[in-house]
Specification:
Helix content is about 40%, strand content about 10%. The chain is α/β, with parallel strands linked by helices and about 400 residues long. It has two domains: about 250 residues, Aspartate Aminotransferase, domain 2; about 130 residues, Alpha-Beta Complex (Aspartate Aminotransferase, domain 1), CATH 3.90.1150.10. Helix 3 packs parallel to helix 4. The radius of gyration is 22 Å and the shape is globular. It starts with a strand and ends with a helix.
Length: about 400
């Protein structure tokens, strides 16, 4: 039986060209990049070449790029690093949103345990963080705002530029206090999708107005275990890993040169038309499913999403049962964040958008990527329609879907 993968937001297959670059780097760049001998300096050259690739994509200086073990570490470094750098100066207030990835929310909660004040702003029914809500949450001692660029479950793109403008306006108003508000955005699900054009044109991520930006390799076709944090020059960040002086004393530990090379190669391998291709496939999937299962509806802003993501509510049905049934037919999909797999709790993201616990448990995420084509999407749609109709037929009461939508 053929297998078709539709869970790209959880992780991506490593691209063949990335595997090749990784294997070559493992073989040729075994030296410690901190060593001064030839082998060490060869590794250093490859590491810095990879850093320049990431920096160019973000419109940044290579000195502003810190390699990490992935998005979680980068998010922790951004949040806890800024908090601890500012905590020495007195009260610190952090603002984040209710739909952040656990690596952001848990880092914020850890900062709260260490003495930070924390505000969590709500989102609209479309899954959008409103810039005015962020501004209303700011206080005289706010040091950091962290709002993701795109949501991992719904794909909704957040108005980071507008949020940055609101923050800048408040900073200008309190200029005499001399306190900056740093803005971090988790770009793990946006980088390579909505940011793909920034890679291929002069428009750079630094123009978003953020001061720190997180990237993860395994969402791009690189292996797990590599990520990066862009830290705009002048932003104070304390290291959260202690040891050597690697990464300009911002991240201790021997640098993972092969994985840094793999991340750079994955960035270079992003096709110029991938965003539009995936958007067309996603729209085809949604059209087919909602036409044949009229009670199904798409969660989140339908016009402001990353191009590869669809989160569909099937009122009254158990999403986990549908995921299992699809898996048995050869399709890999999910109910939401892979970091929450095994959890019996409904998605906090969907709850924050106003869905009932029942509806949150009835929502399935489909995320497309490089290997998917129209034939696979058609096969997936047919399987989803057949399974949904079968499940509704087995549960006659579920056919009265309106009761579940409003429950």
């Amino acid at each position: 039986m053929s297998r078709f993968y539709f869970d790209y937001n959880a992780t991506t297959p490593v691209l063949p060209e990335v595997c090749e670059a990784l294997a070559e780097a493992v073989h040729d760049c075994f030296g410690n990049a901190s060593s001064i001998h030839r082998e060490g300096q060869q590794a250093r050259q490859r590491l810095e070449q990879a850093r320049r690739t990431v920096a160019a994509t973000l419109g940044a200086s290579p000195a502003e790029i810190v390699f990490s073990s992935g998005g979680t570490e980068a998010n922790n470094l951004a949040i806890l690093g800024v908090f601890r750098a500012r905590a020495r100066g007195g009260r610190v207030h952090i603002v984040t949103s209710a739909i952040e990835h656990p690596s952001v929310l848990e880092a914020c909660l850890q900062a709260q345990r260490e003495g930070a004040e924390l505000s969590i702003v709500p989102v609209s029914a479309s899954g959008t963080v409103l810039a005015e809500d962020v501004r209303s949450a700011l206080r005289p001692h706010t040091a950091l705002v962290s709002v993701m660029h795109a949501n991992n479950e719904t794909g909704v793109v957040q108005p980071v530029t507008e949020i940055a403008a609101e923050i800048a306006a408040v900073v200008r108003e309190r200029r005499d206090q001399g306190q900056a508000i740093w803005f971090h955005s988790d770009g793990v699900q946006a980088f390579g999708k909505v940011v793909v054009q920034a890679i291929l044109s002069p428009a750079k991520v630094s123009g978003l107005g953020a001061d720190l930006y997180t990237v993860s390799g395994h969402k791009l076709g690189a292996p797990k275990g590599i990520g990066a944090l862009w830290i705009r020059k002048g932003v104070p960040v304390n290291a959260i890993l202690h040891g050597g002086r690697q990464e300009r004393s911002r991240r201790a530990g021997t640098e993972d040169v092969p994985n840094a090379v793999a991340l750079a190669k994955a960035i270079e391998a992003i096709p110029p038309n991938e965003a539009s291709r995936l958007a067309a496939l996603r729209d085809e999937l949604e059209t087919r499913v909602t036409k044949s299962v009229p009670v199904a509806r798409v969660n989140g802003d339908p016009s402001n999403r990353v191009p590869n993501t669809s989160n569909i509510l099937f009122p009254g049905l158990a999403a986990e049962s549908m995921v299992i049934a699809l898996d048995l037919k050869g399709f890999a999909v999910s109910t939401g964040s892979a970091c929450s797999s095994g959890s019996v709790e409904p998605s906090p993201v969907l709850l924050a958008m106003g869905l009932s616990p029942r509806d949150a448990r009835s929502s399935v995420r489909f995320s497309l990527g490089r290997s998917n084509d129209l034939e696979q999407v058609a096969a997936l749609a047919d399987a989803v329609i057949a399974i949904a109709n079968q499940m509704y037929s087995a549960q006659p009461e579920s056919r009265k879907a309106a009761e579940y939508v409003s429950a």
